[in-house]
Amino acid sequence: MTTVASYRILGFGTVDVVQQNDGRNRFWDLFAASGECLNEGHPFRSEPRRKQVEAFLAHDLKEALARIEKECERLKIAQEDLDEVIHETAQTGNLRLNQVSEEKQQDRLITTAEEQAARINNGGRASQLIYLLEAYGEAGALKALQDRHETNG
């Protein structure tokens, strides 16, 4: 397995294009940052470029967003609840926060995460759902919504 390219793909985050060999045959797979194979059972027979990767994943993105939106509706997740989930997610993804000891550095990291969350929330519901999908994957995004519902329930 050899990573030949990495692309930042809307809704998926960083996607690695990995060349693999099956005997004498080469093929290429797409892997999410989580290690999940994004094209399971549908390998590329030549190295895909960014446009091909985006086109291949576009259908999956649309379907995943529809499922997440449906879950928001089912759980009656209000806009302000989703805003809070985004803020929590931004802080959860703030991995450097516990690695710095100086209070001013921690404050800057917290402020940066809050600004990022505000930009995402100001981008509307689609922006929020895409962010959750990128941060957690579909199963994790659905769990975050269910956790929020239980907290407010």
Strand content: 15-25%
The radius of gyration computed from the alpha-carbon positions, rounded to a whole number of angstroms, is 18 Å
N- to C-terminal distance: 46 Å
Number of strands: 3
Number of helices: 4
Task: Flag low-confidence runs.
Answer: none
Tertiary shape = globular
Mean pLDDT: 89
Portion in helices: 55-70%
The main pleated sheet reads as: 3 strands, antiparallel
Structural class: alpha+beta
Adjacency order of strands in the biggest sheet: 1-2-3
Q: What sequence of helices (H) and strands (E) makes up the elements?
A: EEEHHHH
Could you please describe the fold and organization of this structure?
The chain has 153 residues and is of the alpha+beta class. It is built from four helices and three strands, in the order βββαααα. It has a three-stranded antiparallel sheet, with helices on one face. A hairpin with a 3-residue loop joins strand 1 and strand 2 (13-22). The protein is globular and about 55 Å long. The termini are far apart.
